[in-house]
Amino acid sequence: MPNPLPALIVVDVQRAFDEWETAGKRRNNPDAVARIVDLLTAFRAHGAPIFHIRHKGTKPNSSFLPSRSGYAVKDEACEAPGEAVIVKHVNSAFIGTDLESRLRAGNITTLVICGATTNHCVETTTRMAGNLGFDARLVRDATWTFERIGPDGDTHSAEEIHAMTLSNLNGEFARIVTTHEVIASLEAVRQ
Question: What is the CA radius of gyration of the chain?
C-alpha cells in the first residue's frame, strides 16, 4: 500500500554554492534556502520521510571534495537525527545510490524535490524520478541556479535558466509547485 505521505528530497544544499556566490557567480531565488527550511520544518512536524542528498566531487578541482569547505551542508539545512543522508558522485541522486530502493521499501510514491542547482542535479534527479514512475513535484521557490555562458558566448541569467528548466520539466517529468502548496497538501493528508 502506498505511503500517503510524500518524501522530501533535499538536493545538494552545500556550502560550495555560497563560495561560488562570494566569488562573483550570480544566482536567482535568494530566499530558496529559507523555503527549504520551511519544507524541512513541515515534513518533520508531519513525520514525513526526508532524504538529504550530498554531492561528493571526484575531480581534483571540485568545490565538492570532502576535504574542502564546500562539501559541508549549510547549517540551516542540516539533517536531524535519523534522517537519511545519501552521497552521490554524479548529477542524479538515483545513479550509484540506494535512493530508489529506499523509496520503494518505504512504499513512497510521491517525491517533493528541492535544492541546488535547478538545471543540474535538481533537474537530473527530477527527470529520473519521473522516468522511474514517481509522482515528482519540484518546488520552484525552494530551488536556485546560477547564470551561465552558453556555447555561443551568450550570457543567460539565472532567472532565465531557472524558468526554462521549470518549463522543460513541467507536465512531462514533474508538477511544478510552491512551498506553500506542498505544506498545504501535507496538512490535507493529516486531516
Answer: 16
Instruction: Compute CA distances 49 → 6, 34, 40, 102, 152, whole Å.
Output: 7, 19, 10, 11, 43
By the 8 A CB rule, do 169 and 138 touch? yes
Angle between helices 123-131 and 158-169 (to 10 degrees): 0
Q: Which CATH architecture has domain 7-190?
A: 3-Layer(aba) Sandwich (3.40)
**What was the pLDDT predicted at 156?**
97
Each residue of 21-61: pLDDT tens digit?
999 999 999 999 999 999 999 999 999 999 999 999 999 99
Cα–Cα distance between 126 and 139 in angstroms, integer?
A: 11
pTM score, whole prediction: 0.97
